Amino acid sequence: MELNKLTLAVLAATSMTLVGCGGGSSSSSDDETGDDIVTPDPLAVYTDTAWSLGADELVGLTYPQNATNGDMVALKRSTGSDDSISHTLMVAPAATKEFVAVEGVALEKDYYRDVLALPVSGTVEGEEIDTVLIATCGYDEASAIEGGEALDGGEGGGASAQLVAIEEETQTPASLEIYLAGTDISASLDINDETEGNFFLVDCHSLGGLSASDLSSKGTEAYEVDFFITGRDSTGEVAVFEASLIYDYENNKVTESDFTVLDTDAGIIVTAVEEDPEDDFLVAMTVEDNTYLLSALESEGIELNNDGNPFTSDTENGVVILDLVYSGENLLAVSEDAGLAGADFNGGEYVLLSGGDFTRCVDQLAVNGTTVWCHDSTDEGKLIEFTAPTVPQSDVVEETPEESPVRAVSPAASSYKASKEEAEQIKAELEGAGAEVEVK
Q1: Beta strand pairing status for 321-327 and 85-92?
Q2: pLDDT of 9 higher than 90
Q3: Alpha-carbon distance 283 to 295, whole Å?
Q4: What is the 3-state secondary structure (H, E, C) of 101-167?
Q5: SS3 of 326, please?
Q6: CB–CB of 12/252 below 8 Å?
Q7: At 431, which helix (H) or strand (E)?
Q8: How many beta carbons lie within 10 A of that of residue 258, not counting itself?
Q9: Which of 26, 44, 143, 356 has the greatest number of beta carbons closer than 10 A?
Q10: SS3 284
């Protein structure tokens, strides 16, 4: 596909490489650090000192992938006294832990959600810098998880083809916005799959599953950057797009950039996306009274199923899981309810974790190896830092011949897979919510 010219111009103007950030900008000169400058003591925890209780909401948080002493990146949504909504993209250096707005960035869409970031180092207009490349998603109307229009059902459960065609003409695609912090370099790309007849997202629920790899071993001096985006598509159904970018760092230009819609059979709310260690994407979803984690949005790929809300033990309604992160083999989740849930893959359910400050987690997560951060529900505008807890895994009883004794399988020896009967039951639940699902 033809690359958006703005993106090409933006990235070709730089000579950048993905690195472990050193924390500060190498562009600072020695004569700027005189005795008359007093360096403030770092804050005890990452803090937005301008946070307004009751008006602000954390809708994005990430630590730059593989960074060393990198800048924490956050996205804040603010609601004014006149109900106007604005968003602020923020970074907090590891040395100070204080969030400040990214200079020169004006987020002009009505809504934004989630952020991803990569540490980069190089030359911009002749100046050496260490910084972060940040991606976020902007859109015009509130999504389903923000109280906006509910998602339609699966194929056959939504509007007529004629009405969908008319609606597509009036909808504005969601945009992937890219910013190189500390510079005036930015780009905006419509999230659409041109191979599927201009099939696009109209809002975003989550960005996740970020991966970046050096292709030099394959004879190409370039980086491949991939991640996933979930949201409502132009037909009113849920969709998962894979974004892919090839950046030629030898010639300082982007050679490929596209969005590909992945196979989805479920027309219900998908609110978080992550990539598992085996490179398959996982999505969290809510259907009627249940909370799910699925792979490939197909019933045979079901990993977890909870009746109700695993954070509150409420069995009346499933929970909207807002963020997922992997730390080692542990998949962690947060929602708008306080607490931290983990994936018990053997038991096939989310389990609420206890025994640490993470019991106060809410809204968003960030991870760097075994270190995890989350928004503090009891002291908003601040982050809690903790070591990723090990999620307990249920023992699995393996079926054996009658003459052999039954033995328990250790958690590491087996992973949960839905049985045919379970898949049929969940298939019925999904179809009851308007989705079309095939069970194999």
Answers
A1: unpaired
A2: no
A3: 6
A4: ECCCCCCCCCEEEEEEEEEEEEEECCEEEEEEEEEEEEECCCCHHHCCCCCCCCCCCCCCHHHHHHH
A5: strand
A6: yes
A7: helix 420-432
A8: 17
A9: 143
A10: strand
Sheet holding 361-368, edge to edge: 361-368, 371-376, 383-387
CA distance 324 to 61: 11
Residue of 64, 72, 74, 61 lying closest to 19 (CA atoms) = 64
Do the beta carbons of residue 226 and residue 206 sit within 8 Å? no
Query: Distance (Å, rounded) from C-alpha 385 to C-alpha 45?
Result: 8
Task: Give the single-character DSSP code of 415.
Answer: -
Q: Is the Cα torsion angle 415, 362, 365, 88 positive or negative in sign?
A: positive
Cβ–Cβ under 8 Å, residues 213 and 134: no
pTM for this entry: 0.81
Radius of gyration of the chain (CA): 22
Q: Quick one: tokens of 423?
A: 């898949």
CA distance 304 to 139: 30
Span 277-312, pLDDT tens digits: 887 889 998 887 889 999 877 766 789 999 999 999
**Domain extent listing, the chain:** 1-24+42-267, 272-371+413-435
